């Protein structure tokens, strides 16, 4: 059979980079090339993929026939192979002309659908064999990530234990081993080398590392050549220096420097939100060796839930955008109006949030809300257990650094009672013994968070609690009377739209769509984890379910991070990127209006992806006023 | 018998919880309000506002509880919470000597700056970590971690003596087992003089403070007797 390269015309706009042939899929990126019975033939044509070169190899089947497959190729990338720290090369465009001129139709053996596969299986071909896998993968219905066996690939081995605490009672060696097995570390220290925060490990464990980190950073500081990051083994270290504070992120999850840096920046914002900038500066001006842990006491859990959000993979942080609850324009408008009508004079911002998604906002005309500020608030309310667990209403002084990093605002928070009949816990609704509300902290279980509806009222006046409480009571009564509260609750419980509902029949499995003008994004509901057939016994299923979900989410987000990094690499100016690898195909598309990222199974053709992308984008355009809050209630 | 069918008079009482971080203020409130307990509860941020009713034979008290965060950086906000409060719960951790020192500071601050008639209860929490039979209850597994089985660092006598000197109600409690938690709030409800309740309605009980001030002299009687009969020790 001749080697084939697929070269359909793309229909999704201008390409600076065209991409790999659709089937056959690329082999896993992080493995050594050509193991097993595959013979690597010399490359026959210049690769067209943005991500890797393709070598074509010929393979003999047991029945005597031969097939041609791409095999793993050396990556045309200079970054260390194992780190997963990928910056796709963008010099592949040269080959695109050649590719485009080739025939689409020459996919001889591998395009044959299921029937052929079945006979191969019946023939007792080793299921593990590369040939079988490659053949099986030719069906377009293979969902993304399906072909990765749990724990085996993607460098996510042991990810389900990532968030477990390091046991106190183990020996030092064991503790150290666990510490080192973590894929993600965040450390914060003062420029004097005093530890402030570490996601993993207690002081005795991390102290020496902090010393090393401080030495390395200050060496470069002294040389007037600040250290930004370095790679050691398969881990990427990124350093972020902000005044007297050093932030270090250590990642083996393949995020780019700028992505890690924005995560560190979010941790810095969290610290500012606790202390304000003047306080932070004052502390270190007077005593550079101050132990900042004391002033930050009690916020470790906020930093950790923020950090864990990044490690699990946060589309919101990746895109620097907010997610809203999808709702009819007229309904949102009506809620805004109720909100505005009962507004207290002392109110600065008013928000309704359902499970981390914004429902309604009212704000003064001259102030807008910054996503990084909302991230701090949402993390506090929905990710860390501190406020929810307390029950009742909360009154919280906090600084919103993007709004004003020099002073505190006061935030009134009240969660609407989960029981649909009562509007809020006051008067007679609660009696001792009624404890229907035990939560297990933050375990990444989405379904529970989706239902929680919080009202957030922010005022610059620290004495305005009772005013805002009164506003809340009126608001709750109004929302209940008009039925909007149950509406919000049911919409929130529905969850995110399924991709099949948006574009029926599409091959795309998941997408992110960011509206650049609104700084908001939407996405389809997360992929269902693909449980390995071997673990179908019901016993282990429940326990492994959360772990599977978490892993599936991380894989998805890792891919999005790579796409995002490639699109936003300095001087890249990419508009469209289509990438195929062994386990998934992905497409990114950026215009001045939106950023769009989507994932599909490894064998979905580029044309099919582009078509699906177009449909999703048209949907987003059509639904813009439902998906996004445009303006919000302004007073 | 005349009032047995009539609804009992109901009044609001503003109560504030103060004390060092991690002594169990929120856990006491959670036990009192929801009869619930959470291991390793995350620290309170700012302050939480909760309400709970307490039925006395002659009246109903509706507690409006301000559960404040214990961290040092929130200390400057405390006056906002104890201003006009008719009751305060100053909590310390029986197993942590510094927490009693902090509690004494709070008591002093309250006596200096809060409403003069304020009823203050000193509460030593985490009795389940000690060997006392009353509180240890069913929590042997936790206690077992301690070498001696008794993590108590502050003796009942020491705290009680101090409480008597200052005219405070005194209790040792366990939010974990629920031991003596409701009693604390009932005792406070009892200790609040009726006279100060009549005007103390709603959150903006501004004049309640001045009222109690006028009648300060009368308050000592019931408060002292109460302290004696409800003492844990």
TrEMBL record, chain A:
The top of its lineage is: Eukaryota, Fungi, Dikarya, Ascomycota, Pezizomycotina
| Key words, A-Z | Autophagy, Endosome, Membrane, Protein transport, Transport, Vacuole
Q: Where is the composition biased (Polar residues)?
A: 41-60, 67-86, 423-432
- The molecule here is called Vacuolar fusion protein MON1
Keyword Membrane applies: yes
Q: Name one Pfam family in it.
A: Fuz_longin_1
Chief subcellular location equals: membrane
Report the function annotation for this chain. Answer: Required for multiple vacuole delivery pathways including the cytoplasm to vacuole transport (Cvt), autophagy, pexophagy and endocytosis. In complex with CCZ1, is required for multiple vacuole delivery pathways including the cytoplasm to vacuole transport (Cvt), autophagy, pexophagy and endocytosis. The MON1-CCZ1 complex acts at the fusion of vesicles with the vacuole, through its regulation of the SNARE complex during the coordinated priming and docking stages of fusion, and particularly at the stage of tethering/docking.
Query: Start and end of every FUZ/MON1/HPS1 second Longin domain?
Result: 346-476
**What protein family is recorded?**
Belongs to the MON1/SAND family.
Q: Which InterPro entries match?
A: FUZ/MON1/HPS1_longin_1, FUZ/MON1/HPS1_longin_2, FUZ/MON1/HPS1_longin_3, Mon1
Q: Where in the cell is it found?
A: Endosome, Multivesicular body membrane; Prevacuolar compartment membrane; Vacuole membrane
- According to the UniProt record, where is the region Disordered? 1-89, 422-446
List, for all copies, the residue spans of the domain called FUZ/MON1/HPS1 first Longin: 184-306
Q: Which domain of life is it from?
A: Eukaryota
Q: Which GO terms describe its cellular component?
A: fungal-type vacuole membrane; Mon1-Ccz1 complex; multivesicular body membrane
- Which species does this protein come from? Parathielavia appendiculata
Q: Does the keyword Protein transport apply?
A: yes
In what residue span(s) does the FUZ/MON1/HPS1 third Longin domain sit?
Answer: 508-624
Membrane topology, from the record: Peripheral membrane protein
TrEMBL record, chain B:
Query: What ranges does the record give for the region Disordered, renumbered to this chain?
Result: 202-233
- What PANTHER family would the database entry show? PTHR47978
- Official protein name in the record: Ras-domain-containing protein
Q: Which domain of life is it from?
A: Eukaryota
- In its keyword annotation, does this UniProt entry include Transcription? no
Against InterPro entries, the record matches this protein to: P-loop_NTPase (IPR027417), Small_GTP-bd (IPR005225), Small_GTPase (IPR001806)
Keyword Protease listed: no
Name the Gene Ontology molecular function terms of this record.
GTP binding; GTPase activity
Q: Fetch the PROSITE patterns from UniProt.
A: RAB, RAS, RHO
**Pfam families recorded for this chain?**
Ras
Alphabetical keyword list: Nucleotide-binding
